[in-house]
Structures
1.
Amino acid sequence: MQWLEKWLFPPTCVITAVTTQKHDLDPAFIAKWQIGSDVCPRCAEPSPQGLLCGHCLSQPPRVSRTQVAFAFEDELRDLMYQFKYHQQLHLSRLFAELLAPQLDAQGIQAIIPIPLHRTRLRERGYNQAFELARMLSPMLNIPIISALTRPIATPNQTQLKAKQRRQNLKQAFAADAALLEGLDQVALLDDVITTGATMQAAAKQLESAKPGLVVEAWAVGKTH
Ligand SMILES: [Zn+2]
């Protein structure tokens, strides 16, 4: 009955409200936010010809690869804000639909959403990374494993400098080794990657719980 649903409720752009062909987003935005191929495969920072960047060469990060769908700017920033802070949970499906086809998920055995501390979770009522994972999981046929928790409340990261962020994140996560048993390769999932410090800290925790675990980082957007 998908055709009927489509006929009754045609896809409509969440930004411009015009009827679209496929996703609830005008394809012009998808093209506009496209990150291109000139990014480092490991950290997703700009890098000519998509080569490993100098930073990753000299100081290899803990994540083996970073895959993001879009540059986090303009309308995407506003849309993500609605999703994250204004209960616009329906956007999780759109974001997952846009992210899924851009991911190379080969070999990934589990999606691990970046957790929120329980106080933040209570305030917000949901974890946007988990909501995103819930949509993405059936699209990729990869299970979600909540192997990370956030026992320590870290201050709002957006206000902090990179160095302070790293400091605050050092002990922020805890990993459940039992849940990681039998896994070799997992993907961390978040809505947005800013400096990458959150992903690094989460990956570090996973690796100490399961030595040798290969950890990737996935997100809808990346700031540059
Ligand atoms: Zn890099």
2.
Amino acid sequence: MDKLAELAAKQGTVLGDGAMGTMLHRAGLIHGAPERWNVERPDVVLGIHRGYVEAGSDFISTNTFGGTRNRLALDGLVERVAELNEAGVRLAREAAGSRLVAGSMGPTGELMEPLGLLTPDGARASFAEQARALKAGGADFALIETMSALEEVQAAVEGAREAGLPAVVTMSFDTHFRTMMGVKPAAALAAISALGVQVIGANCGNGPGEIERVMTEMSQALPVGVVLMAKSNAGMPRWKDDRITYGGTPEVMADYARKMARLGVRVIGGCCGSTPEHIAAMRSALA
Ligand SMILES: [Zn+2]
């Protein structure tokens, strides 16, 4: 059993942390790779992690979501994959103490062939490169998140394992309750559990209402031994003054946490727009 599934078995429910990206934007990150701040503004990243520790998170996720060479190349950082990922894990490790550290791995941003140029081998090598740095920095598992394509999920799971990290996978069902690539919740659950992944679920998307329907569908098709995980955005994303905002209050997220627990979701966290305040409200709701 991997460490997160083990913790869920021991505690019943595990509380994750909240957003990193939207917290960095609040702190002044305007453009460029957020991973750069693991080296240039480590105080800010560490402060965000500490906020989640104080709010009651049981594990802390690294600021490495865009840490594959494919994503970092967009900012001319392809030579710095190992450095930026390892620095990210060290910051999370420092704040986490004895809590678990999730090494965040997001999509490469490229399409797999035949739709795009990315090959399964190329994708696996990119994820393995990132995962080796996450492992070296001290991550307990790879948190493969916001995924849309099952082929890319498989490449990420294999890459993480190649580096010695167990994989936890969440996909985003933000296109009429399917991923952007058309995958439905129950089909995702079946395919990812067939890869031997123990903790599976959904993250990001269009807020708690969408996640609730997705997790209901997953809970009705739950394979034996699989632990469900949900990470909802703090409300529905809306455009305001040329940027995306999330209006979900801590009370909205507390209500979401209770609903998830009632559905049998055992790992519950927040995604975009969620802050330590939201996580603290979820902690009280789950107590
Ligand atoms: Zn999100």
